[in-house]
Amino acid sequence: MRQNRLNIAVIIIFIIITGLAVWSILTSPVKLGLDLKGGTQVILKATQLQTKESTSETKTGGSVSGDAIDKAMLIMLNRIDKLGISEPLVTKDFSNNIVVQLPGVDNPDRAVEVIGKTAQLEFKIVEGFDDNGNYKLGPTLITGDKLSNAKAGYDNNGQVIVQFSFNSEGAKQFEKVTSENIGKQLAIVLDGEVKSAPVIRSVISDNGVIENIGSLEEAKDIALVLQTGALPVNLEIQEVRTIGPTLGQDSLQQSMIAGVIGIILVALFMIIVFRGLGLVSLIGLFCYIALFWGIISALKTPLTLPGIAGIILTIGIAVDANVLIFARIKEEMLKGKTKIASFREGFKNALKAIIDSNITTLITAAALYRFGTGPIRGFAVTLAIGIIISMFTAIILIRAILFLAVNSRVMTPGFIGIRKSEIKKVQ
Fold first, then answer.
1. Residue-level pLDDT at 1
2. H-only helix segments in 300-395
3. What is the mean predicted confidence (pLDDT) over 19-32?
4. Are 81 and 75 in contact (CB under 8 A)?
């Protein structure tokens, strides 16, 4: 009686958990990744910034620290947010490249330019001109990290400009620079390019403008990157891949069809081979599907095509443990043991094989996640989640259902899938 109460409690807990999973799915739909929703993926290589103070030339090279890459990723996320792009993904791959995924982007070229722009703003005094008429610049006197705001607009003559203002520290420095250099040209340098070099007429404390900008959209982009701060690294585009929404939708539909076919085939196999026990395994399978989607929904992790491949693969794995358990139960019953003894021995004998096989699969998933890139990691995550849930449902839920019904009239040899001819041989 005590054992029956425990089994009933386990089933009730599973019903509650499954209900919460369904609620999570309904209230927070699973996000679709780039390959399913469509959009742009950019792979960027980070290189060290090395600026020559005596000129406007900026060189790059050398390795980049992990902290610098993390800071760059944070700034890029800030910029993406200001562009109004929903559900972006900015990660690092195994080679420390920055991978940016932008689902549903209408203008990928502009997004890539804004996200990867270094936005190093510098103020330097013009010391003269070289033989080619280019500016000779002095050392950097103040940088863009002292800005408090930047805004695109027009001046009194209708020219496109970016107005900027300094924070308290920057205002003091800018006031000092302008007071000491009245009558000289102050070059405003953005990413190594002299945007303008106005003559300092009087002391300026807290604001200024950037001129010589081609369009209002360009001015808005400059204002955006100045507001979010300069990247601590230089970024080189390694790959740009664009996926249309139609292709992504087709992939999703084909994957869903494959998943449904997989579930049907697995269900037919279990019912044909194990009869009534196969029906019990379907309860675990549908519970597994609800829990799996609920976890994916709750984690708010974008679902990718490799991720769906992992889900479809784990549909078969979800009943793998049941196959082992049911086969052992049939073997024990064919030896002439009672139902309760057969069920106990069947679970006991199958448990070690189930744990060993699932642990080896989890090790494989861990290796794929550790050494793989974005899509491979998505496959590894769904594979690992599926393995854990399948063990959970088979070892706990299915066991509780079977032991609760083991002494009922329904649990006959035919229900378990043992033929009469086989029973006669045992007798």
1. 63
2. 305-334, 339-371, 374-392
3. 84
4. no
Indicate the pLDDT class of residue 17, thresholds 50, 70 and 90. very high
Q: Burial, 164: exposed, middle or buried (Cβ in 10 Å; 0-12, 13-18, 19+)?
A: buried
Query: Which range is most confident: 69-83, 217-231, 345-359?
Result: 345-359
Amino acid identity, position 381: V
What dihedral angle (degrees, nearest 10) is formed by the CA atoms of 198, 201, 203, 204?
-40
CATH code of residue 309 = 1.20.1640.10
pLDDT of 16 over the 90 cut: yes
Q: Could you give the dihedral angle defined by the CA atoms of residues 342, 344, 349 and 355, in that order, rounded to the nearest 10 degrees?
A: 140
Predicted TM-score (pTM) above 0.70: no
Domain count, the chain: 2
Q: Is the pLDDT of residue 49 over 70?
A: no
Contact 57, 198 (CB under 8 A): no
User: Does residue 187 share a domain with residue 317?
Assistant: no
Domain boundary among 198, 224, 242: 242
Decide if 25 contacts 297 (C-beta within 8 A). Answer: yes
Token pair 């080896």 in the structure block, residue = 360
Residue 362 pLDDT: 92
| Domain residue limits at 324 | 2-35+244-426
Which range, of 42-46, 153-157, 423-427, averages the lowest pLDDT?
423-427
Nearest of 247, 227, 217, 218 to residue 78 by alpha carbon: 227
Nearest to 123 by CA among 225, 232, 209: 209
**Same domain as 300, residue 254:** yes
Give, in degrees to the nearest 5, the angle at Cα 10 between 4 and 259: 125
